[in-house]
From TrEMBL:
It comes from Corticibacter populi. GO terms for molecular function: mechanosensitive monoatomic ion channel activity. This is Mechanosensitive ion channel protein. Residues 328-411 form the Mechanosensitive ion channel MscS C-terminal domain. Keywords: Cell membrane, Membrane, Transmembrane, Transmembrane helix.
Length: 448
């Protein structure tokens, strides 16, 4: 292994990489990485792998975690062949660089896979990248062991245990690694399970993936705490206090999570169902642990807490009977033929392509209004996703209007008759209302 920078001058350290042996090392490292990249590219093409967000392959095979991982393995296998070139100078530089690259790519890609589109993700990714490259520089320059020794000198005594700053940092790194692996595994399981099922089994798989992620994250945290030297049995008191705090201060939040678990297990509503909650109708696009996301056909989105879903009436328009019943109203003149109008209305609505022929549309006489006879036309559509679509209602109303005008059926306008109680022969005079004169402005002198 080459001489560390901490034990020599910068010039002496750079002279290690001057000469034919360093060029040979560089050529071998480049050849190994190029061969691995070509292998990954061919494997990606053979598998027809088109997922640009892949953690293993990445977008083109070079930005995934397999390249630095296989690069480490390849360099380790080739290293015995370079025994005549000992001591190696570039080899100790390539290994930590590949390790850092592996950690950076793994962490960033897993976080993007688990939390897509989050605004806080990029600052965290940049900060972690800078930290890893700082560790690489400390390792290459030989400052790493010295820094670790100094961190080990800073310690605290908690009970019968002594915890150093170095151990805390190691526990933090272990916790981050455990959480990343847990998120990666749970995201892979969720992606595989959610893409392989549809319909009624979808909520059950959602519950399973949520529980798997929670269990894996809990295991990762326990492993990190154990490596930090924290006695896990002492956490029983903290767990009891946390339970009391959740029961008192976070009961509404906990109720939402429990209600979400009940909804997913009972499968009363599922992703893709058309529901109506408190007058808002739309399609369920996501069911997270705390809330359900509903999007209407007009693009509006409602975030409904699960507690509201379990404690109020929810109309599931997609349950069993897939057709959705709709209606519209219209008023016609009092002197019209009621039977003819009912037939015209039913035929007009049935002519709309989205309306089902069976059951046939039906026109009902609702009331004798002051201005005309009020009819209600009931019909069904095949796709409940268009239940609150204003475009569909416009088509139905236009068809009704054309049919009534074509057969001379009048749509009445509001009319009022005024009865004069005074002398009928007395002339009526229209008096124009007086307009208020603007008040003069005081305190303004006239110019000459």
């Amino acid at each position: 292994m080459g001489t560390a920078l901490a034990g020599s001058t910068l010039g002496d350290w750079l002279r290690q990489f001057d000469g034919p042996r360093a060029l040979l090392e560089l050529a071998v490292i480049a050849a190994v990485l190029l061969l691995i990249w070509l292998l990954l590219r061919g494997l990606r093409a053979a598998l027809n792998y088109q997922n640009a967000d892949s953690v293993l392959f990445g977008a083109n095979g070079a930005d995934g975690v397999l390249l630095p991982l296989l690069g480490l393995a390849g360099l380790r296998l080739v290293q015995p062949l370079l025994a005549p070139l000992q001591p190696l100078h570039l080899w100790p530089l390539a290994m930590p660089i590949l390790v850092s690259l592996l950690a950076i790519r793994l962490s960033i890609k897993v976080l993007r896979l688990a939390y897509p589109g989050r605004a806080w993700l990029e600052p965290i990714a940049r900060s972690f990248s800078w930290f890893m490259w700082f560790c690489v520089v400390a390792w290459i320059t030989g400052l790493g062991p010295t820094l670790m020794h100094e961190l080990d000198q800073v310690h605290w005594t908690i009970g019968a245990r002594t915890i150093s700053l170095r151990r805390l940092l190691e526990a933090l790194v272990t916790a981050v690694a455990s959480l990343l692996i847990s998120l990666w595994v749970s995201s892979a399981i969720e992606s595989r399970m959610m893409h392989s099922v549809i319909g009624a089994r979808l909520p059950v798989h959602k519950v399973i993936t949520t529980m798997v992620r929670a269990v894996l994250l809990l295991i990762g945290m326990l492993v990190a705490l154990n490596m930090a030297g924290i006695d896990l049995t002492a956490l029983s008191v903290f767990g009891g206090a946390l339970g009391v705090g959740i029961g008192l201060g976070l009961q509404r939040l906990a109720a939402n999570y429990v209600s979400g678990f009940v909804l997913m297990v009972e499968r009363s509503v599922r992703v893709g169902d058309v529901v109506r909650v408190n007058g808002f109708q739309g399609t369920i696009v996501d069911m997270s642990g705390r809330y359900t996301s509903i999007v209407s056909t007009s693009g509006r989105q409602a975030i409904v807490p699960h507690e509201l879903m379990t404690n109020s009436m929810v109309e599931n328009l997609s349950s069993e009977h897939r057709a959705s019943e709709q209606s519209t109203t219209v008023s016609v003149a009092h002197d019209c033929d009621v039977d003819q109008v009912r037939a015209l209305l039913a035929q007009a609505v049935a002519s709309v392509p989205e309306v089902l022929a069976a059951p046939a549309p039906e026109a009902l006489l609702l009331e004798f209004g002051a201005d005309g006879l009020r009819f209600k036309i009931e019909f069904e559509i095949a796709d409940p996703h268009n239940g609150d679509n204003e475009d569909l209602l416009s088509k139905v109303n236009l068809a009704i209007l054309k049919a009534l005008r074509a057969h001379g059926v009048a749509i009445p306008y509001p009319q009022r008759t005024l009865h004069w109680a005074g002398n009928a022969d007395a002339p009526l005079t229209l008096v124009e209302p007086q307009r208020e004169q603007p008040a003069p402005v005081k305190g303004v002198a006239k110019g000459t």
